[in-house]
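Suppose you are handed a protein chain with no further information: no name, no annotation, nothing but its sequence. What can you learn? This example shows the usual starting point.
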Amino acid sequence: MAIFNPGNILMRLGNPFKNLIIKFYEVSMRSTAHKLRKEVVKRKGRTILNRQVKKTIKDYARQRFGNAAYWPYLALYTEIRGEFIKGWLPYDYYHNVFLPKINPPDYCHLGEQKTFDYKLFGDFAVKPLFVFISGLFYNSNFEFVEKDKVKIFMSDYNDIIVIKEEYGVGGKQISIMHSSDFTPEKLKKNINYTIQPYIRQSKVLNDLYPDSVNTIRVNTYLKTDGSVNIKFVYLRCGVDGLKVDNLSSGGLYLFFDSSGKQSNLAYDDLGFDIGDRHKNTGYLFSDIKIPMFHEILEKCKNAHRKYPYVRLIGWDVCIDSSGEPKLLEWNAVNPGFWPQEAKFGPFWTTDDEI
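A reasonable first move is to predict its three-dimensional structure. Written in structure tokens, the prediction is:
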């Protein structure tokens, strides 16, 4: 369901090219919304969108966003939720208007440069064994390490490692292997990598589903008064042997309220409930108790304060076997939004925020 974010291209191109590209993405996204809405209606076997509901949606889009053309995602949300709710933010407006305004493209790509995470966020991030930048190896302090010493270290390390490319998307461009199988020649010289220890997750998350590292997504928002609040939180996990927990790859999610109470049902990326227990492990979702839930939220808020250049960030946090929250990824280019907005929003209800 991910859609390319034009980001820097839009900011640097002048009119009319900038407007043409924006128009292209608007058309593409609205076409996607129509297709997804048809899929939801097909799976439900009924539709909510009659003539009056459609008129209400268009009137709302025109009044709040200045253009009735923003109606397709609002209609998709309506089919998912079973009713139209004022206050929703259509994904195309969020993606093309709102997000570039609060997350300037020149600053939002640092989250994709994974080699910098530990330098910026310290022990909240996973400490890398090495980073590989511009064809050279460095330790976690960015001190140069000779290739032969890396080979010796990996031979002696004798454990699973994770190799992440910068700018990887949706859990892709990640390799997991035993350290003894690693050779520097596996890395492309024109790509930067971070090489990390493999995270053994906490018992509760491993019992839920052991084949992927299951992450808690926390979306934080830097308000105009300088405070950081939590927009929403959900837990993702894989299914059917998946090694990643991403919804776009077929994973599921549980939504959490601010107290740490989860939904008793899990959902797919179109908001359909897929039962009250994990299909592979039989784990009852209502039994999940996330240790250190509020500490995770505080760590994410504190991390956001260290990078105030963007105002909305999605943090992917796991809990290791010692019970310590660890940051695996963060995203300021396009933090996940619309499936949760449709099912559990609206999250952006006041006009001063948008």
